[in-house]
């Protein structure tokens, strides 16, 4: 057992909220309370937004070097402390220690990347259509942003939303996900330690009511949200109704096509990584394995064999390969979809049974379901757990049609040795990100991230695209 943390809101540079009715349990061992949490409401949101508004003029007018230095220092601190913070992340969220440390390092790299971007923000200088007139465009900070973040990447996602917001001179209020506020607090604390002025970054811990209060707040200029499609649609409606900026990253039902000409071992490794690692709790996870007839049976057999050897266990056990689900609700969702698939005629090749380990936790057996068709619920709705299904196809065209045939379009992958099919897939897959001979999950931090259809809404996140959401463009005309 490890000590229970006492969490706080961060408002105007101070830790507030001595009353802590909330408890966050360790998904690997539910006897352990990881953190006691205050539960904020509209009063805390009002105070946090007021602090962010008051801090905006000085922060937005500070030299970009000041902003860059803070992000760079915070990034270094995160990298130095990746083991301690990664351990906390794994205790709180349930991903394996290697995944927790890796995600913490990724957050550190994100901060360092945006430290550079703070200095590179640029406009354009154009000839006017009128003689003797010059036209310039500038990017300027927008104001106060509300960031509503999910539990599945409890440090990387707050980092990739907060870092560009801060780099370009905005101020921020974060609402971390209910299950993972301790990891988010570690990020907020490190940014303050790195020299962030008070009020520039605030955090209110609480449930959906805190997110809703940010969406509705008249002094919040923009909202960036990652989470479920249902909640995201409400966030967009609320923000658009009062003409605030809004950006949504939501679900996926990501396809991985395996063609007959694929290298079998490679295809199996790619499916294993994309569908099951991080307990399948990634919006980019491959949940539909669309496999051509000639390789289908060999692929299923080889993947099932590998799945049988995967060690499911407590996140901090170094031999664990798949940690628990984040919550009882997520665990139950996985098992519910296994039942749904079974009822639809799917065949459970491996997994699907409840797991009982030595430590009481929310464990899910990695599950592979075969003999499914594209129109089944298991192939249309997001499960968000270590559950994938195969769909047998005859041709590449049929595979592509099925891959494109859902309401989502985040990431899409193909395993093939055919350059012709790979290039065609890159062009015709209706997804924001395409992967050739790579897992659908696991992306770089310095390039745009986002999807099509119901997966995303608004400007892209991350990389150079982040400036489109976190700045607005002013056009200036000057006559000589
Ligand atoms: N795209 C992605 O990366 C993610 C997708 N999901 C999908 O969503 C499903 C459910 O996960 P869940 O955590 O419930 O996702 P939610 O969409 O409920 O939560 C995402 C964030 O929104 C907050 N929130 C909840 N209600 C509101 C509201 N009315 N207004 C504003 N903010 C709100 C949540 O707070 P709180 O946690 O306190 O409720 C959390 O911070 C998963 O099974 C998965 O399918 C989930 C996480 C990430
Ligand atoms: O696949 C990744 O690296 C990122 C996934 C992600 O952003 C998510 O699941 O929310």
From TrEMBL:
Signal peptide range: none
UniProt KW keywords: NAD, Oxidoreductase
Pfam hit, one: Aldedh
EC assignment: 1.2.1.3
CDD domains: ALDH_KGSADH-YcbD
Domain Aldehyde dehydrogenase positions: 23-475
Keyword Transcription regulation: no
One MF term in the entry's GO annotations: aldehyde dehydrogenase (NAD+) activity
InterPro entries: Ald_DH/histidinol_DH, Ald_DH_C, Ald_DH_CS_CYS, Ald_DH_CS_GLU, Ald_DH_N, Aldehyde_DH_dom
Family as reported in the entry's similarity comment: Belongs to the aldehyde dehydrogenase family.
Protein name: Aldehyde dehydrogenase (NAD+)
Native organism: Brevundimonas lenta
């Amino acid at each position: 057992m490890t000590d229970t943390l006492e969490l706080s809101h961060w408002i105007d540079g101070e830790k507030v909220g001595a009353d802590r009715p909330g408890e966050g349990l360790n998904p690997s061992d539910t006897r352990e309370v990881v953190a006691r949490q205050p539960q904020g409401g509209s009063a805390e949101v009002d105070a946090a937004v007021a602090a962010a508004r008051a801090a905006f003029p000085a922060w937005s007018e500070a030299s970009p070097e000041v902003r860059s230095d803070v992000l760079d220092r915070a990034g270094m601190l995160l990298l130095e402390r990746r083991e301690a913070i990664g351990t906390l992340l794994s205790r709180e969220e349930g991903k394996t220690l290697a995944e927790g440390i890796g995600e913490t390092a990724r957050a550190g790299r994100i901060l360092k990347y945006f430290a550079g971007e703070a200095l590179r923000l640029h406009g354009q200088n154009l000839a006017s259509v009128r003689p003797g007139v010059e036209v310039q465009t500038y990017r300027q900070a927008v104001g106060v942003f509300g960031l509503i973040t999910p539990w599945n990447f409890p440090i990387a996602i707050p980092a990739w939303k907060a870092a560009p917001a801060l780099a370009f001179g905005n101020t921020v209020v974060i609402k971390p996900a209910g299950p993972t506020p301790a990891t988010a607090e570690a990020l907020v604390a490190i940014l303050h330690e790195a020299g962030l002025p008070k009020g520039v970054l605030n955090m209110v811990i609480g449930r959906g009511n805190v997110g809703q209060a940010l969406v509705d707040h008249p002094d919040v200029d923009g909202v960036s949200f990652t989470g479920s499609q249902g909640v995201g649609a409400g966030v967009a409606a609320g923000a658009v109704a009062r003409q605030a900026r809004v950006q949504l990253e939501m679900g996926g039902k990501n396809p991985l096509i395996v063609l007959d000409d694929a290298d079998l071992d490679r295809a199996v490794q790619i499916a294993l990584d994309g569908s099951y690692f991080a307990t399948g709790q990634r919006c980019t996870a491959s949940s539909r394995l669309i496999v051509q007839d000639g390789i289908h049976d060999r692929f299923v057999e080889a993947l099932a064999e590998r799945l049988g050897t995967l060690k499911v266990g407590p996140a901090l056990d170094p031999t664990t390969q798949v940690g628990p689900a984040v919550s009882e609700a997520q665990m139950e969702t996985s098992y519910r979809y296994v039942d749904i698939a079974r009822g639809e005629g799917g065949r459970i090749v491996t997994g699907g049974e409840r797991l009982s380990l030595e430590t009481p936790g929310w464990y899910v057996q990695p599950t592979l379901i075969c003999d499914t068709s594209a129109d089944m619920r298991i192939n249309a709705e997001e499960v968000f757990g270590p559950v994938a299904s195969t769909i047998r196809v005859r041709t590449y065209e049929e595979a592509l049609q099925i891959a494109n045939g859902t309401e989502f379009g985040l990431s899409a992958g193909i395993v093939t040795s055919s350059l012709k099919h790979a290039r065609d897939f890159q062009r015709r897959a209706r997804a924001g990100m395409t992967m050739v001979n790579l897992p659908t999950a696991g992306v770089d931090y310095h390039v745009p991230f986002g999807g099509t259809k119901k997966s995303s809404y608004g400007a892209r996140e991350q990389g150079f695209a982040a400036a489109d959401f976190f700045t607005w463009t002013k056009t200036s005309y000057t006559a000589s």
